[in-house]
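Hi team, as promised in this morning's meeting, here are the two structures we talked about. I've kept the exact order from the run log so nobody has to guess. The first one is mostly here for context; it's the second one we should focus on when we meet again. Sequence first, then the predicted structure tokens.
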Amino acid sequence: MLRYLAVRAFRAAVTIALVVTFAFVVLRMSGDPAILIMGPEVPPEALAAFRRAWGLDQPIWVQYVRYFGAILNGDLGMSMRDNRPAIEMVAERIPATLALTVPALVLKLAVGIPLGVWAALHQGTGFDRAVMVAAVFGFAIPSFVLALVLVLVFSVDLGWLPSGGQGTVAHMILPVLTLGLGGAAALARFTRSAMLEVLGRPYIRTASAKGLPWAAVVRGHALPNAAIPTVTLVGFLVGSLIAGAVVVESVFSWPGVGRMLVVAVASRDLAIVQCILLLVAATMVTSNLVVDVLYGVLDPRLRHGARAAA
């Protein structure tokens, strides 16, 4: 088990290092922060002084070594626009993002998994077809389109809910629905497929042939085995809590990390962008690491296979 965990922890560390490197290189190639922050009309001497102050006049490999070394020391840099620690500014926005993404995750799990299981148990019925049609639409519609439709219906036409901003529970409903419905649709489709695959296995027929009640067969044999592949998608949904809020926060003017990322990218505030991308990568990698551990717990064959391969 320790070797199993060590291999996956090493892969997680390598993934984060690659994400940090990719973000660093792409941001340096996408434009001059000095011009975007200070403006093209600023004298060349002021632009040169800005680049010197922030180390942008150094070769890119020197900037990278300094940046990577600072990360290892826990320093994620200073915002070029506000001259404040990037981690401090991002941390201030995290509660607002979690206020949307955590309820949205609960909605995905509470709606997607039961619908997928129930549809699989009633394959071919009208309920099954209705769930799959709804799941296809929910999965296919982009989040920004769904957000605009919800605003048009519930804010413009009916006037029931605010179209943006933050302040009350009513302001959270439309963003949470936008974030939650698409994930619930994907989870319903995936759970249904996993359940149908398990229900067709020989051990399910054997358990039924032994006279076990169908409810006991489903609860004791089908659901635990169907949970193994479903954990993958749940882990992805947990890992994408912050990344998935970028579009929704922009549409609903929600002051979270996603909206901060959009503004920081537009202004080339390098430290803020890098800090958020590192946060997203760490969340995703940690979620995947937890999923790998759960795989090892749910299916001991994976642990033994990893040991044998090593």
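And here is the second protein, the one for discussion:
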Amino acid sequence: MTDRPMFLMTDPGFFDVCYQINPWMRPDAWRTDPGARLAAAKAASAALRRALEGLGAQVETVGAVQGLPDLVFPANAAIVLDGTALMARFRHPERQGEEPVFREVFCRLKRRGIVREVADFPEGVFQEGAGDAIWDAGRRLFWAGYGPRSSKASLGVIEKTFGQEVVGLELASERFYHLDTCFCPLAGGEVLFYPDAFTPQALAAIRERLAPEARIEASGEEAEAFCVNAVNLGSRIVMAKAPASLTRKLEARGYAVGEVDLAPFILSGGAAYCMTLRLDRTSRPEPKLIAAE
């Protein structure tokens, strides 16, 4: 392992929007010009990779697999912390074919020393990776979504596997079907989140644990632009094209926003965070945020 942040991304060569398992997926729009949309997706993925590498990150690439269009969203492949990868179990049959592909990827990463252990959820316990289990480095806990995709029973497995506190958050809507679509812990201790995506009980848990000054509430417009689905490295945040209102909120907190046009992937219900999986997270305390220059 290097000291550089390390992410997993997937070659988008077989990306497609050919079925609908969330309300954002638009097979009809994709079919209007699939060649142009695939070209745009390849360009968007390359731009996201350049943005991450420009911030000093290293990117490992998963090969494309025909018939698995959502393989481009490796955030759902596993939860990774301290060298342990807890492999996902997908709820929808359309994505279950990704499981053996990602398992082989992580076995290769283990042979290379990038991860040290590959673990599993019990049969029948659905859990869709880091998309529904987000490590909060400052608070040293997992925020874990459940409801539309991941089972509530997954929370105890995550806690037992990693030996870390898990705060379960029930998601209220199929529109925000993974936690990463509506919740993003930031390096300065704030959390960017969309309140309407959560049940009243989940929202109460968020507000109980986050002081008012740590809450950055996204509007419906900002969440629907998939800007909460962002990648944060220190004072830099990489996200889809953002409404000016969100950029102002984040800049006021000392963050610099880098925007990437991820429109082809938003047609499938994903953006920057979904398209990446951080491989080098540890439970050790991380350095404090350094303000953007």
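Starting points for discussion:
The chain is about 30% helix and 20% strand.
The longest strand covers residues 141-146.
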